[in-house]
Amino acid sequence: MPKTVYVLNGPNLNFLGTREPQLYGRATLADVEKLCRAAAKQHGLTVVFRQSNHEGEIVDWIQEAHAKKAVGLVINPAGYTTTSIAILDALFMLEVPIIEVHITNIHKREEYRHHSYISKAARAVIAGCGVQGYALAIAGIASMIEAKD
Ligand code: DHK
User: Fold this and answer.
1) Which of 36, 71, 111, 136 matches a 20 to 30 Å C-alpha distance to 128?
2) Is 28 exposed, middle or buried (0-12, 13-18, 19+ CB in 10 A)?
3) Fold of 3-148
4) How do the domains of the chain map onto residue ranges?
5) Is 66 a catalytic residue?
């Protein structure tokens, strides 16, 4: 059975493509999903790809990733990056590599975007590579798994 990586997206990312395109670009969330599936395929992985505007639902999906024995998790927590201890606590449960992705370079933006709770649980953080950051994250997860095997 192919190994599964969960790719979770936080609030407002359902509007990718039309939301502040000068910052987030023109690619839609459906484009990002395709990108992730293609990147995963190259590494013999499959992807569960989801987006939610609700913190608890994201927590549920992290718990699901744990229950389903996902081999890694990529998360763009979006607006929950700077607020969610609940998402952080759920991520702490996972014993597999986690990579945090931000489409924009959050450190170049407003001060209130700089601090991430999620980074405490992440093995790596990718910020500012646009949506390609998701493909880089999947490649990163693949190499972390290979290094462990
Ligand atoms: C996306 C968001 O929705 C913001 O809340 C973050 C992040 C940045 C991104 O760059 O992907 O501050």
Assistant:
1) 71
2) middle
3) Rossmann fold (3.40.50)
4) 3-148
5) no
Q: Which two tokens stand for residue 12?
A: 């407002």
First-to-last CA distance in the chain?
Answer: 16
Q: Ligand 1: which of 106, 119, 125, 131 to mutate, judged by most atoms within 8 Å of the beta carbon?
A: 106
pTM: 0.97
Q: Whose CA is nearest to atom 1 of ligand 1?
A: 78
| Whether 43 is catalytic | no
Q: Please provide the DSSP assignment of 102-131 as one string.
A: ESS-GGGS-GGGS--SGGGT-SEEEESSTT
Residue environment code for 65-99, b if the CB has 16+ CB neighbours within 10 A, otherwise e: bbeeebbbbbbbbbebbeebeebbebbeebebbbb
pLDDT in tens, 105-142: 999 999 999 999 999 999 999 999 999 999 999 999 99
Strand partners, 47: 5
